[in-house]
Write a structure and sequence with these properties.
Order of helices and strands: HEEHEHHEHEHHEHH
Number of strands: 6
Shape: globular
Number of helices: 9
Largest sheet: 6 strands, mixed
Strand order of the largest sheet: 1-2-3-4-5-6
Radius of gyration: 20 Å
Helix content: 40-55%
Structural class: alpha/beta
Strand content: 15-25%
């Protein structure tokens, strides 16, 4: 079996219903340094041949910003151009720098880290907002954490959250359980996803936005779907 065919069937197949009346069948296409243009074009040709007209691509900051200041979009530019050539629409997942991670971090560590994420979003969105192959910005890969991490940013947001609440008391008067941190984390997740979306909307008011939830029955307490709308 040729490599490109093997790659195609080993990639993550997903169903997308971002704004369609029926499910759209597509695939995850991993774009990484070292791949040849022949391979990249071959994957999009395969998508077209199998009537898959949507794919998700992780937009790794570490791939487009190998240096401190330089940005090089040539690898992803070619992928987007091939998607356009073969009539494939792209769900582009924002993936700020996180060396060594497969799933990516879920929250910046501090204000400086948040500002760095913002600069990445600004640059990528401005670069691709008008590309014909772009359909949707995926705000984050799989929101939800296994533990509620106390970082400089989360602690600062928690303090602000407590101040903004009208009352932090249990109205029943008994069986009090300290759930403030868990309740905060649900709002914290919503705040960060909204922050990403609003950052995108500064430059792109046309493309769809989307998130792909992860381990729903485990992470559900962190998800506030009505607020995410």
């Amino acid at each position: 079996m040729e490599f490109r065919t093997a790659f195609f069937f080993l990639c993550f197949v997903f169903v997308s219903c971002v704004h369609a009346r029926h499910p759209l069948i597509g695939a995850q296409v991993f774009i990484e340094p070292g791949q040849s243009r022949e391979n990249i074009e071959g994957w999009f040709r395969l998508l077209d041949q199998h009537h898959m007209n949507v794919c998700r691509i992780r937009m790794f900051e570490d791939h487009v910003k190998p240096g401190t200041d330089a940005w090089d979009f040539s690898l992803y530019d070619f992928a987007f151009d091939m998607a356009e050539k073969y009539n494939v629409k792209i769900l582009a997942t924002l993936f700020p720098s996180d060396p060594g991670s497969v799933g990516g971090f879920k929250f910046p560590k501090d204000q400086q880290h948040l500002e760095s994420v913002g600069r990445f979003i600004d640059t990528v969105v401005q670069h691709y907002k008008s590309h014909p192959a772009l359909d949707t910005w995926v705000l984050q890969n799989e929101p939800g954490v296994g533990d509620y991490q106390k970082t400089p940013l989360s602690l600062a947001k928690f303090e602000q959250w407590q101040q903004d609440r009208s009352s932090g008391k249990n109205s029943s008067g008994y069986l009090k359980v300290p759930l403030d941190w868990e309740l905060f984390w649900r709002d914290y997740t919503t705040w960060y996803l909204r922050w990403i979306a609003e950052r995108i909307r500064k430059y792109d008011t046309v493309s769809q936005t989307h998130v792909n939830n992860h381990q729903l029955f485990i992470n559900l307490p962190q998800y506030d779907f009505p607020a995410w709308m």
